[in-house]
Amino acid sequence: xxxxxxxxxxxxxxxxxxxxxxxxxxxxxxxxxxxxxxxxxxxxxxxxxxxxxxxxxxxxxxxxxxxxxxxxxxxxxxxxxxxxxxxxxxxxxxxxxxxxxxxxxxxxxxxxxxxxxxxxxxxxxxxxxxxxxxxxxxxxxxxxxxxxxxxxxxxxxxxxxxxxxxxxxxxxxxxxxxxxxxxxxxxxxxxxxxxxxxxxxxxxxxxxxxxxxxxxxxxxxxxxxxxxxxxxxxxxxxxxxxxxxxxxxxxxxxxxxxxxxxxxxxxxxxxxxxxxxx
Length: 278
Fold this sequence. Notes:
The protein is 50% helix and 13% strand. The chain is built from 12 helices and 7 strands. Pfam families: DUF5753 (PF19054), HTH_31 (PF13560).
């Protein structure tokens, strides 16, 4: 298979392949020696850049002694690596799209999130996240695992990345988890919004219809890869990095930003809601 630019499906395959190789206890160099391959072939494969054909993938996965289910999953990803977009259906308690999203967030340098109904996930306090998860499609026994995974995502909220949150005012008025949780969540937003690497902007209700009415989305930017758009649904996650889709959502961001309040005005909105809860 010719070497290509990394895309979201190729990187998902590469991450799975990297995990499979790790289970063997071998380094990539040692594994290349065992297979009599050039080390760069494995390096390209785990970085989602191709350079390996289907037969070689089958040989590599067989050498790693993966269970049949995992092997089929990685082979399917490999075969889809040239397709536009990537859809993930969860197969256990912690949705696969959440784990994949976390991996991409960790690799990103800039994240822009639009949220119309809820406080963005990266800014949710544990109690708020628990109430949201409990109200969702998850089995009761899975709720703690999903909440823990969601809260672990917030560890990336540190200097070194830029975060832009565009949030509709109605999301701030939704009393998720009851008044006490609601109040603490709003106070948390105020504390986070003063950090220099976090840009928090409210879309006021007075705007009426706006560019984000189709639903929430996230745009992630990377130092080495094309930008990536993520859409979350009840039972799957959608990832897109084709130029046409990315351009469409980047236009949404610009149009939302054009009607958003500035940072200070956005904090005033939160302050006013909190004052009404006293």
